[in-house]
Amino acid sequence: MNDTIAAVATASGVGSVAIVRMSGDAALDIARKITRKERFKPRYAHLMDLYEPQGELIDEAIVIWFQAPRSFTTEEVVEFQCHGGSVVARKILETLLHYGARLAEPGEFTKRAFLGGRIDLSEAEAIAKLIEAQSDEAAKILARQMKGELKEFVEGMRERLLRAVAYAEVTIDYAEEDLPPDLVEEIVEQLEEMAGLAGRIVASSRRRKGMIEGFKIAIVGKPNVGKSSLLNAMLGQERAIVSDIAGTTRDTIEERLRVGSHLVRIVDTAGIREAKETIEAIGIERAMAAVEESDVVLALFDLSRPFDEEDEKILALLERYRDEKAILVLLNKTDLPGRFDTRRLKEWEPLELEARNKGAQVLEALEKVLDDLSEGSEPLLVSLRQIEAVERAKEAIEAAREPLLSGELEIFTFHLQEAIAAISSISRPVDYNEIMDKMFGEFCLGK
Q1: What is the pTM of this model?
Q2: Contact 409, 390 (CB under 8 A)
Q3: Is the pLDDT of residue 375 over 80?
């Protein structure tokens, strides 16, 4: 890591300010060449002219030197805050590369911060996910994780597992010594508590993943029930074609929408029924896939038409996903004479929609659902890697119970070591090269 890296750290496009970042042993020397200045004060904003190798002026920029190890990467770091747009930042970067820096790989700045001991893996992932956060609450949680909240949970769990391993080692080495008779019972209790906590954290994190990725909402119902008009009402614009002809929507239509503090993806699907032609069948297949991928289902029923087999299929779909997804049942066309048997939906506590206000009604109800999905006092696991690590730890802890009760302490210790390795991999695993390459490679340039 002795080489010096550089990258544009701001998004491309038109903007007032762009930032070019450089890190490595030669960063300060290269900064002297591009500015033609010798003296820099650490952590001080210098207003300086920047020059190409041929002597042409590039820009007037703010230059800040962060002296090692008091920098994000723990190396010599220099940042150039120049005028926005792609041209100026690109010319600065090209000049830095000319003087000996190389283009940074995705996530390499954060990777160096990890290798330098500045952050651990949980904090690094929080940095990456903070950029993607789709809700205010997610941003708050990730900001706390950047300060070590998840690391504290990992260390606490690891400490408890190590104590249990220490018991086993003492018992194996000093079998003739008298140990407290209630110690096994106490450890079993602790194992059950840790396994339960791990299970709750995994379930809570899967439920709340939409806080970071954006909750996905699918509107479903039989053809001509009013799904597209509901989408338009929620968006406040004519996004989907509305027609009295059944089967007008042949494909899924996806839009982004802010609901309260949440940014969501809402999908209008094709009407679900027995398809009459190939194109409609494809649309229905995509509708079913949208429901499968969704976090929330808005199920729409038409009060002006009798309950029929197509409605029965929608109800069967809701039953299928009852325990997996949040479901809002909505009754549409309440301004027309009612012919629908609402008793079939009584247990779902349906919401009757007013013709002129249905968009606002659904958004209000949906905000409450999303707020409920976002609640949770447990730490939030922000990646599939973290979720799988806690699941492995849970399985290993559960596997250790029987060997402990039967006195097979070597096997008990083996399973707990597995649990320790799994939980430790969230923050700072023993063998982490492969994990690092995979994880940091998903970062954007300049991070």
Answers
A1: 0.71
A2: no
A3: yes
Among 47-61, 169-183, 313-327, 361-375, which is the least confidently predicted range?
Answer: 169-183
Fold agreement between 5-119 and 213-374:
no
In the DSSP assignment, the letter for residue 350 is: P
**C-alpha–C-alpha distance, residues 314 and 298, integer Å:** 11
34 close to 51: Cβ distance less than 8 angstroms: yes
Q: One-letter amino acid identity for 441?
A: G
Contacts of 308 (CB under 8 A, 6+ apart): 222
| Neighbouring C-beta atoms of residue 241, cutoff 10 Å | 11
Measured CA to CA, the distance from residue 176 to residue 191 in angstroms comes to 25
- Which helix (H) or strand (E) segment holds residue 57: the answer is strand 57-66
* Whole-number percent of the chain with pLDDT over 70: 85
State the DSSP code for 120. -
Per-domain residue ranges of the chain = 5-119, 124-207+381-427, 213-374
Residue type, 52: E
pLDDT band at 246 (very low <50, low <70, confident <90, very high): very low
Q: Answer yes or no: CATH 3.30.1360.120 is held by domain 5-119.
A: yes
Looking only at the bridges linking them, the beta strands covering 326-332 and 351-352 are: parallel
User: What is the CATH number that goes with domain 124-207+381-427?
Assistant: 1.20.120.430
Enter the DSSP assignment of 135: B
- Residue type for position 333: K
> CA end-to-end span of the chain, whole Å?
16
CA distances from 85 to 8, 82, 88, 443 (A): 11, 9, 7, 22
Virtual torsion, Cα 124, 130, 136, 140, nearest 10 deg: 20
Q: Residue 354: its pLDDT value, please?
A: 86
Domain 213-374 bears CATH identifier 3.40.50.170: no
Q: What's the CA gap between 284 and 271, in Å, rounded?
A: 7
Distance CA(82)–CA(45), nearest Å, equals: 12
269 three-class SS: coil
Give the Cα separation of 85 and 218 in Å (integer): 38
